[in-house]
Write a structure and sequence with these properties.
The chain is of the alpha+beta class. It has ten helices and 13 strands.
């Protein structure tokens, strides 16, 4: 898992999750993309860390004195407050300490994921693309993206396609603010056959948490361009389309009274009945039990 939160290790390179006095939901891993976790951490410190991923920390709660060292540079001290964003790049050395409890949302982006999106957006070789460490950044757009990931990753059955879409936008935003000259690439169109294959794949996998990357792979487009082209052709985003198709199937299954509401939810990929009920209501305006009663 290419995601490091905080660890008491010295001069180590790792991709394992090692947490100090940390409370929060399990990590939401997204293979080939990165990971997300919402945590509460007591005052503490890390050893010397070399990260395998690009690591964005969104400071949600608490005010703390943050002491940090990057790549052997002299220590710096910052007062980290809610709304602050810390960006620590892959393959860079880092150590830090903080003096009060804090609430954080941690987002990992794999280096290749960012490089591929940057190369797709800019007409140049991005094989050596990297960021410089940035502490206490105030970036409203990046913050909004982080909070979207925070809200969705905290739920049961988080929608993978939506998370990947937001993380692709985050990768593009980070790349576009890193100082490169922008040369937008004309995106290849989503063909009718590719769109048909995409829709057929969705309908054949309604019981799964469908990933955006798996759909993009069917078309030969990057996640970023696939998302844009799909929305342009269909009129709704990929995540919303998948949810609509799942709920349309659920509506058909609700007619069968031998199936419980929970059974119907599981048939369309929702292990948690309350999550299924919220998703169904967002499409039909009523919860599934009301829908079933009215259809009767």
């Amino acid at each position: 898992m290419p995601f490091l939160i905080y660890s008491r290790i010295s001069k180590a390179q790792t991709s394992l999750t090692q947490i100090i006095a940390c409370k929060g939901p399990p990590i939401v891993p997204l293979t080939g993309v990165g990971a997300i976790q919402r945590v509460s951490i007591e005052a503490g410190e890390t050893g010397d860390i070399v990260r395998m991923d690009n690591h964005i920390t969104f400071h949600r709660q608490g005010v703390t004195e943050l002491r940090s060292i990057h790549d052997g540079a002299p220590p710096r001290i910052d007062f980290s407050t809610p709304g602050s964003i810390h960006i620590r790049p892959a393959s860079s050395s880092h150590a830090s300490s903080w003096d009060t409890p804090v609430g954080l949302t941690l987002v990992s982006l794999e280096p290749r994921f960012i490089r591929d999106h940057a190369a797709d957006l800019f007409q140049q070789d991005m094989s050596s693309f990297s960021f410089r460490p940035m502490i206490g950044v105030k970036d409203e757009f990046l913050w909004q993206l982080g909070m979207k990931l925070d809200a969705q990753s905290s739920t049961v059955d988080p929608p993978r396609a939506f998370l990947e879409s937001v993380m692709a936008t985050m990768a593009m935003h980070l790349a576009s603010t890193a100082g490169f000259s922008q040369h937008p690439v004309q995106a290849r169109a989503l063909s009718r056959s590719a769109l048909r294959r995409t829709k057929e794949f969705v309908d054949a996998n309604l019981s799964a948490n469908i990933s955006l990357s798996s759909l993009a792979a069917l078309t030969g487009l990057s996640i970023y361009h696939f998302s844009r082209q799909f929305s342009r052709e269909v009129g709704v985003g990929v995540g919303r389309y998948i949810q609509q198709r799942k709920m349309q199937r659920a509506a058909q299954l609700l007619v069968d009274r031998q199936l419980s509401i929970a059974d119907v939810g599981e048939a369309v990929g929702y292990s948690d009945p309350s999550s299924f009920s919220r998703a169904f209501r967002s499409v039909y305006g009523v919860p599934p039990n009301t829908f079933r009663r009215v259809r009767r």
